[in-house]
Design brief:
The structure holds two protein chains of two kinds. Chain A is α/β, with parallel strands linked by helices. Chain A has a domain of 259 residues: Amidase signature (AS) enzymes (Alpha-Beta Complex). Chain A contains 15 helices and eleven strands. In chain A, strands 1-3-2-4-6-5-10-11-9-7-8 form an eleven-stranded mixed beta sheet, with helices on both faces. In chain A, helix 8 links the parallel strand 7 and strand 8. In chain A, helix 5 packs parallel to helix 6. Chain A is globular, with a radius of gyration of 21 Å. The model of chain A has no long low-confidence stretch (mean pLDDT 96). By secondary structure, chain B is an alpha+beta fold. Chain B has three domains: 293 residues, no CATH class; 113 residues, no CATH class; 59 residues, Arc Repressor Mutant, subunit A (Orthogonal Bundle). In chain B, strand 13 and strand 14 form a beta hairpin. In chain B, helix 7 packs parallel to helix 9, helix 12 packs across helix 13 and helix 14 packs across helix 15. Chain B starts with a strand and ends with a helix. The chains are: A alpha/beta, B alpha+beta. Chains A and B meet through helix 9 and helix 10 of A and loops of B. Chain B: Keywords: ATP-binding, Ligase, Nucleotide-binding, Protein biosynthesis. Chain B: Its EC number is 6.3.5.-. Chain B: Pfam families: GatB_N, GatB_Yqey.
Chain lengths: 494, 484
């Protein structure tokens, strides 16, 4: 079925004219029509005629032999990327009616590559969350279910809508953004591939900011090769983003399938957290064994500052967010709540416009930057961040990639982990350090736990060495042969 | 220390430091491509970055950096090859981002000095602490609607240089001299137009008082004073206020105050308790600003001649006094005018015409040097006519007035009015004969020893020749005739 293809397969099918881009787009619109009410993966679905018009344009290019990298491939766009003329909400009441007059650099590149946008996918409000339960437009449902249990599971977050859409056949692939694990953790929870590129690889221009020094866009796909293909379309220097890198963009898709023989894979001792569920530990061991069989050399390494990763992340990210979100003050954005004074307008507008998690983080961030606390919190966190980065650089003197679990558990149910924010934040424990260091990291689905839920392993690489990460990811993918489909799926429902 | 406040308990001296916000001359804003023209329709010069649309990012404008570096060089200051931008966080309706991008911890320019000159001719060095770049805010307009305030973002994001002095200033007059000198340097450099009325240069004034030899006492900051005269007034009244508080056993609170020029007083704007916590932190959207020494050197090599250097050169090159040279270089346009007039001519004569007759004429006609009815070339030609004897100094005054009035060239006026100097000795001799005949009695008196009458005869001969006679020839001929 058309909704079950990888990007690579669909691209080949379109090229061979086995089906048209219009048929492919229509199949996805139909699947969205059937399943989105349940999954709530999309906040906004684009008008059918616009989607089909884009598909027709792609078909015309195929006919003329001028097809581009992503031509005719239907994808979802996380609703954090500004899309020209299409409502962009960041899953917040604040931006409930915001229609950007501009296209983000990443989505502009995807459009230039011929992608067909289906709609804007749900997320945690302003990308703050690990379960996609903080969206002002409702939670996203994970299409997977536990065996013998009908509990509604979370898709992970913050790119939960993108992950659910790709897993359930509502898009061939989707964009995500990752600040502390927002691509990788939901990818693991939904049994798909998610790649957080090196910081600076994709332009941040036009992507609504959460924490500027950490935010990075990346692909969420059904295969490692797809992640390479889509990253190739998304990445590249942008003079409008001073932090974007001007390194050339390699042909990432070609990295998959390259031999990994002789590559050195590091296993960081500090990731063997006490209390790690046995199933996670077992899956990790399995991954190590697979890579060994593929010819990799496995090396124990140490990342001594790992234990400070989460704590420093939850200082730096909220600090930046408290400043980045100051612009939503009711003067230009958000529904203005009247009050007797200007400060009153700010207080009411922001108290009512932001959800509780966003308010929490703004408060935390404001606190750690305040006079008298700055040195103890923010400045110290920045110093620790430097040490964390150094850990990785030193580890990469010995090894080519690191292998770790993506998340400390499989998807959990709505209601679980929700009383204690710290428990929720622990979801990011394995993903945050790579974000802090700015290095690329990939989550690959490798198996199911005893309840039938997908688990992912994470491959972390050197700065700007996504190619090696993709090569090792490809080897892991081949060995694991993960072909499971979630309960809710476009193909299953018909 | 000549400025002291005599209080009940003794003499007090004042301690003043200035923070000047100077709008950078550039075509576009510090971090966006929007235009910076003054006086455009409200909200017509606003980019998505300036209005802080979601996902917008700042990109540094290299020309603004160059302007800051030029200014730093002009202030003899250290240029920091690596500097950084921080966010200064606060909420206000004229600040779309909710933060101002500024350089808090690592400014682009470090310590420098400005030499000021006081009315009594003394010079003093005032230390510059730093210069940093930052964004200006927008403007709130309160008089368009009875209940609403309007926001104009044209100015939001325009580049400012904040130039901070050491607390070296000890007199209101020194503060005035400092601001004038700073403005002069900025204008010479072309980095700020120095126009305080349009707000492109504004000063925050830090004032404290102390007894001689004491460490610094608590200071107050007077915000946004918009003329040099007001800065000097504000210092006087604020210092007097503080002396009174201290002498009555009180304590001066560190606070932000406003100067009310109409009432001649300062008033509390924000007390220390209400002081903002700006939560500065490095802007994660911008990399550290790294510039190359070679680039700085190239900017330095291309700097225009600055007022102090020009003044010294005028003194030595044109042989004019220090004071006159200072008057000429006060404004670059005047200096340029003078130099055009003086080049290859008598520099002293040129300065007396420029600062004397020309300035008087500009004053009288309400013109500036830029709109002067007499241009530098024409004035120079007039000096040539004096030098080659075509006209004498007295006739030159008449010619000059005619130039001011008609805008015609000096030669045309001389020809038209027949003002060419009489050097024909026959004509002069005839005039002398006529005068001596008419005043035979005076001739007798002179010859009997009344030397002083010589001037009378000169005057009569000049009158006879309608002022056109060459005075030197008249003198010589008269002397020989009278003494014969």
């Amino acid at each position: 079925m058309l909704t079950g293809l990888t990007l690579t397969e669909a691209r080949a099918g379109l090229e061979a004219r086995k089906f048209s881009a219009r048929e492919l787009a229509q199949a996805h619109l139909d699947a969205i029509g059937r399943l989105n009410k349940q999954l709530n993966a999309y906040i906004t679905v684009l008008p059918e005629q616009d989607v089909l018009a884009a598909a027709d344009a792609a078909d015309a290019r195929y006919t003329k032999g001028e097809a581009r990298l992503m031509d005719g491939l239907p994808v979802g766009v996380k609703d954090l990327f500004c899309t020209k003329g299409v409502k962009t909400t960041a899953a917040s009441k604040m931006l409930a009616n915001f229609v950007p007059p501009y296209e983000s650099s990443v989505t502009a590149r995807l459009l230039d590559a011929g992608s067909v946008f289906l709609g804007k996918t749900n997320l945690d409000e302003f990308a703050m969350g690990s379960a996609n339960i903080t969206s002002a437009f409702g939670s996203v449902l994970n299409p997977w279910k536990r065996q013998g249990d009908d509990a509604a599971l979370v898709p992970g977050g913050s790119s939960g809508g993108s992950a659910a859409a790709v897993a359930a056949g509502l898009a061939l692939a989707a964009t995500g953004t990752d600040t502390g694990g927002s691509i990788r953790q939901p990818a693991a929870f939904c049994g798909i591939v998610g790649l957080k590129p090196t910081y600076g690889r994709c332009s941040r221009w036009g992507t609504i900011a959460f924490a500027s020094s950490l935010d990075q866009a990346g692909p969420m796909t059904r295969s490692v090769a797809d992640a390479g293909l889509m990253l190739e379309a998304m990445a590249g220097f942008d003079e409008k983003d001073s932090t974007s890198s001007n390194r050339p963009v390699p042909e990432f898709s070609k990295a998959v399938g390259k031999s990994v023989k002789g590559l050195r894979v590091g296993i960081p001792a500090e990731y063997r957290a006490p209390g790690m569920p046995e199933e996670i530990a077992k899956m990790w061991e399995q991954g190590i064994a697979w890579l060994r069989e593929a010819g990799c050399e496995v090396v124990d390494v140490s990342l001594p500052h790992t234990k400070y990763g989460l704590a420093t992340y939850y200082i730096i990210a909220p600090a930046e967010c408290s400043s980045n979100l100051a612009r939503y003050d009711g003067i230009r954005f958000g529904e203005r709540k009247d009050a007797a004074s200007l400060d009153g307008i700010y207080e009411r507008t922001r108290a009512e416009g932001f959800g509780p998690e966003v308010r929490n983080r703004i408060l935390m961030g404001t606190y750690v930057l305040s006079a008298g606390y700055y040195d103890a919190y923010y400045l110290k966190a920045q110093k620790v961040r430097t040490l964390i980065k150094r850990d990785f650089v030193q580890a990469f003197e010995q090894v080519d990639v690191l292998l770790t679990p993506t998340a400390p558990s499989a998807a959990f149910a709505h209601g679980e982990n929700m009383d204690d924010p710290v428990q929720m934040y622990l979801n990011d424990i394995f993903t945050v350090p790579a974000s802090m260091a700015g290095v690329p990291a990939l989550s690959v689905p490798v198996g199911l736990d005893s309840k039938g839920l997908p688990l992912g392993l994470q491959i972390i690489g050197r700065h700007f060495d996504e190619e090696t990460v993709l090569s090792v990811g490809g080897a892991l993918e081949a060995a694991a042969g993960f072909a499971h489909k979630p309960t809710l799926h476009a193909e299953a429902g018909v | 220390m000549s400025y002291v406040i005599e209080g009940k308990t003794g003499s007090w001296e004042i301690v003043v430091g200035l923070e000047v916000h100077a709008q950078v001359v550039s075509n576009s804003k510090l971090f966006s491509g929007a235009s910076t023209t003054f006086g455009a329709e409200p909200n017509s010069q606003v980019s998505l970055v300036d209005a802080a649309f979601p996902g917008m990012l700042p990109v540094i404008n290299k020309e603004c950096v160059a302007q800051a570096v030029r200014t730093g060089l002009g202030l003899n200051a250290r240029i920091n090859l690596e500097s950084r931008f921080d966010r200064k966080n606060y909420f206000y309706a004229d600040l779309p981002q909710g933060y101002q991008i500024s350089q808090f911890a690592h400014p682009i320019v470090g310590e420098g000095t400005i030499e000021i000159e006081l009315a009594n001719g003394e010079t003093r060095k005032i230390g510059i602490t730093r210069l940093h770049m930052e964004q200006d805010a927008g403007k709130l307009i309160h008089d368009q609607d009875p209940t609403k305030s309007m926001v104009d973002l044209n100015r939001a994001g325009v580049a400012l240089m904040e130039i901070v002095s050491e607390p070296d200033i000890r007199e209101p007059e020194e503060a005035g001299a400092y601001l004038r000198k700073l403005r002069q340097i900025l204008r010479y450099l072309g980095t700020c137009d120095g126009n305080m009325e349009e707000g492109s240069m504004r000063a925050d004034v830090n004032v404290s008082v102390r007894k001689a030899g004491e460490p610094f006492r608590t200071r107050c900051e007077i915000k946004n004073v918009n003329s040099i005269r007001f800065v000097m007034q504000a210092i006087e009244v604020e210092a007097a206020r503080q002396v009174e508080i201290w002498e009555n056993g009180g304590e001066v609170d560190q606070e932000t105050r406003l100067f009310d020029a109409a009432r001649g007083e300062t008033r509390t704007m924000r007390s220390k308790e209400d002081a903002h916590d700006y939560r500065y932190f490095p802007d994660p959207d911008l990399l550290p600003l790294v510039i190359e020494q070679e680039w700085v050197d190239a900017l330095k090599a291309a700097l225009p001649e600055l007022p102090d250097a020009k003044r010294a050169r005028f003194q030595s090159e044109y042989g004019i006094p220090f004071y006159d040279a200072g008057v000429l270089v006060a404004e670059q346009a005047v200096a340029d005018f003078y130099e055009t007039v003086a080049k290859g001519r008598d520099g002293k004569l040129a300065v007396s015409w420029v600062t004397g007759d020309l300035f008087a004429a500009l004053n009288r006609t309400g013109k500036t040097i830029e709109t002067s009815p007499v241009n530098a070339e024409a004035l120079g030609q007039m000096l040539d006519l004096i030098a080659d004897g075509t006209i004498n100094g007295k006739i030159a005054k008449e010619v000059f007035e005619d130039m001011v009035e008609t805008g015609e060239g000096p030669e045309a006026i001389v020809e038209k009015k027949g003002l060419r100097q009489v050097t024909d000795t026959g004509v002069i001799d005839a005039a002398i004969e006529s005068v001596m005949t008419k005043h035979a009695d005076k001739v007798a008196e002179y010859r009997s020893g009344k030397d002083k009458l010589f001037g009378f005869f000169v005057g009569q001969v000049m009158k006879e020749t309608k002022g056109k006679a060459n005075p030197a020839l008249v003198n010589g001929a008269l002397k020989s005739k009278l003494d014969a």
